[in-house]
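During the second half of the funding period, the structural biology subgroup turned its attention to how the target accommodates small molecules. The most pressing case was glyoxylic acid, which had performed well in the primary screen but for which no bound structure existed. We therefore specified the complex as follows and requested a full 3D prediction, including the ligand pose.
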Amino acid sequence: MAAPGENLRINPERLWDSLMEMAKIGPGIAGGNNRQTLTDEDGEGRHLFKRWCDAAGLEMGVDEMGTMFARREGSDPSLPPVYVGSHLDTQPTGGKFDGVLGVLGGLEVVRTLNDLGIRTKHPIVVTNWTNEEGARFAPAMMASGVFAGVLDQADIYQHTDRNGKKFGEELERIGWKGEEKVGDRKIHAFFELHIEQGPILEDEGIDIGVVTHGQGLKWLQVTLTGKESHTGSTPMPKRRNAGLGMARVTELVHEVAMDYQPDAVGAIGHMEVYPCSRNIIAGKTVFTIDIRSPEKEVLDAMDGRIREGIDLICEALDIKYEIEQVGHFDPVTFDENCVKAVRDAAERLGYSHRNIVSGAGHDACWINRVAPTAMVFCPCVDGLSHNEAEDISKEWAAAGADVLFHAVVETAGIVG
Ligand code: GLV
Ligand code: MN
Ligand code: MN
């Protein structure tokens, strides 16, 4: 299979300009973005992406989960395409690059192919997966999960946000519910470029992370029910304090994760307190525990210990609990050949690189179940992500997209 010459590079200015242009849609309050899934801003971002795809001569398909697939034809249209992409949705206080770099990096791959007049044998499809973040509707990596057959579409349509709005209805409302059946596409390979979202590459001064594995995750949504009563007049022994229960579980999750260092992590990011009045003891709390580990046994052990701990905490405080698993995937091993294509690309281009495990979940983690998949990481400043201050340099973005370009084009094959 012909490899593109060492000298071929994407256009760093164009990639950066597109990233900055997309970041104008759904601005945050502190320099980042709030373009949560299926909001009007998400719809607007999708239209901009489509306009760019149209201008690049790509043909857009949209499936029933709203995932966008922009196709550049190959010399043999019957061959399964090489897919590339990530997500355009963000956290409520998200950065400009988480996900967006992977989609616009993919677009930059085809724009560069157009500039160079290169035809690939396999078609190339640039993808924007719906609701990767899972901030508005749980779980994360929703559309790729349905695509891979691990989540049920009919069930997902019923999932609600905190205002009771249904996923399926919001998808129709923003006008991006397509007609294509989800998961029907044959994928030759999938490559996702992403910022590392951790500090390793920057600390070690390395350009490219060759992602070999992704850690597993569980999200447990916990509801604690005590009794609302007056903060001033309820005697301490008579309180049934769901807020205190949540505080103890928060501590428990941290301690359990600390027992499985150096790799395991755990935290509670989503917390709701009812009725949330200064002088009422919380009668109900709802919160989501996020635990992760690269080892399935560790993840399962953490899950078990947390459930036992919650039982003891609630018994001591005379409160009730319910636990619902609202997200889960096992640790992932990416495809050997795709990983090699990423490593070879970095090597050929003269970029420093190292193997790395992804701490975050990605659409690639689900797609890996149905097609050979790999990821490319570039550094981000201070390893900070899921924060409006998330930042990368133009050079880091370009190096990541160069590696993506070479890995994708080598896998798709060049004509002639
Ligand atoms: C997805 O962004 C996750 O890792 O939570
Ligand atoms: Mn992401
Ligand atoms: Mn994210």
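Two results from this model are relevant to the next phase. The radius of gyration is 22 Å. The CA atoms of residues 130 and 143 lie 5 Å apart.
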